[in-house]
Amino acid sequence: MDRDTATATGADARRRLPRTDAVLADPRLVEAAGRLGRALVKSVVARALERARTGEIPPEAVADTAVATLPETAGGLRPVVNATGVLLHTNLGRAPLSRAAREAVAAACGPTDVELDLATGTRSRRGASAVAALVEAVPPAEAAHVVNNGAAALVLAATALAAGKEIVVGRGEMVEIGDGFRLPDLLVSTGARLREVGTTNRTSADDYAAVLGPDTGFVLKVHPSNFRITGFTRSASVAELARLGVPVVVDIGSGLLRPEPALPDEPDATGGLRAGASLVTASGDKLLGGPQCGLILGRADLVRRLSRHPLARALRVDKLTLAALEATVRGPAAPVRTMLHADPRRLWARAEHLAAELRGTDVDARAVDSEAAVGGGGAPGVTLPSAAVSLPAEYAPPLRRGTPAVLGRVENGRCLLDLRTVPEEQDAAVADAVRRVGKTASNGSDTGRG
Ligand SMILES: *Cc1c(COP(=O)(O)O)cnc(C)c1O
């Protein structure tokens, strides 16, 4: 198209551009404004008008385009199908909640009895029933407290038990948890001093014993949850540390309450406390499979010191978190557990079925073996046999930008949709998303065909 025609078409389109008010009067957008808010719908309409102004869409398509690009909710966060094969993907909000937890959250959205005993009408401890669920699930725990995340649990322990004192920690356990955050920096920020003992690869109980004294706040043992040191290594067990006569805080990271047979090297809260830990800290949204929160379990006197410390108020969790946590602990298996225990033969059957179905609509799809991982600070180095639908790599960006967004991983020039992290009931939605991309691709958009 030459320059004059382009300008003429652009000017023509601009003349025929509908007014914002006229577009907003479309019944579908009136309904959406009631649901999502008028400001949000107006901004979606403005974007559609802009696309018409540049000639990307015809002027008469503005309302349809606006309707098609409305967000599902006013919340901003968009649901994603996790087909990465990483069970706990930090960028995708770690553990997906169980249906029981989602329902508990929905039920807690309005006014709730989070700090009220409805039987007596008197004030009660915040989140008492979630705490009771934790203590029941971890028999050696005398008490429990819930904070905003695993890092907050450590900060509260350090502040309440070791501010102005020393935290004794093995040199091989000074972990960076991700996004540049380092546990040593976090601990020192509380006013505690770190007393490092041992070496990167070897630390014994004697190394700890040698530095204990009146300045000791507690001994900290951190689970190396995102790396592995192998070879000539040694570390002191919780049982050995418990004999030193000072409080021992064990950061297990992943939040397993009991041993998980599929991950024999992952520490759990029950085991840690049975071995003699005074307190165990963990995240709620890793292998426990619940909402983001930090768990503190153990000796009643220490839990009380933490929960009554002024800082506890700044780290306290919302009623929605408490509802989701309790439903996760008391309710049916969390999705992360289902993913962990998925039968590879079943995953393969799903992958073959999906691939065959897609080939039927001219998509270059095949079932392939895959390796899934726990991720998100749990079980480093552990891989889980899995199966994936393999697509041309060009499918990855449009799948990611679609609704629902489908996130796979690109490996060796192919886009793999790993089914271990996809709930089986989402298979049909995944197939639909892939078919939509395939259709656009064969119509000659930017997606290309492999
Ligand atoms: C994940 C992790 C943390 C941090 O927990 P968040 O819930 O992300 O704050 C701390 N320590 C260990 C060992 C971890 O694995």
From TrEMBL:
Task: Tell me where in this chain the PTM N6-(pyridoxal phosphate)lysine is found.
Answer: K286
Into which EC class is this enzyme placed?
Answer: transferase
Q: Would I find Ubl conjugation among this entry's keywords?
A: no
**L-seryl-tRNA selenium transferase N-terminal domain boundaries:** 14-53
Cofactor(s) this protein requires: pyridoxal 5'-phosphate
Q: Which top-rank group of organisms is this from? A: Bacteria
Q: Name one Pfam family in it.
A: SelA
Q: Which Gene3D superfamilies match?
A: 3.90.1150.180, Type I PLP-dependent aspartate aminotransferase-like (Major domain) (3.40.640.10)
User: Which controlled-vocabulary keywords does the entry list?
Assistant: Cytoplasm, Protein biosynthesis, Pyridoxal phosphate, Selenium, Transferase
* Pathway the protein takes part in: Aminoacyl-tRNA biosynthesis; selenocysteinyl-tRNA(Sec) biosynthesis; selenocysteinyl-tRNA(Sec) from L-seryl-tRNA(Sec) (bacterial route): step 1/1
Its job: Converts seryl-tRNA(Sec) to selenocysteinyl-tRNA(Sec) required for selenoprotein biosynthesis.
Member of which family? Belongs to the SelA family.
- Protein's UniProt name: L-seryl-tRNA(Sec) selenium transferase
Organism of provenance: Streptomyces macrosporus
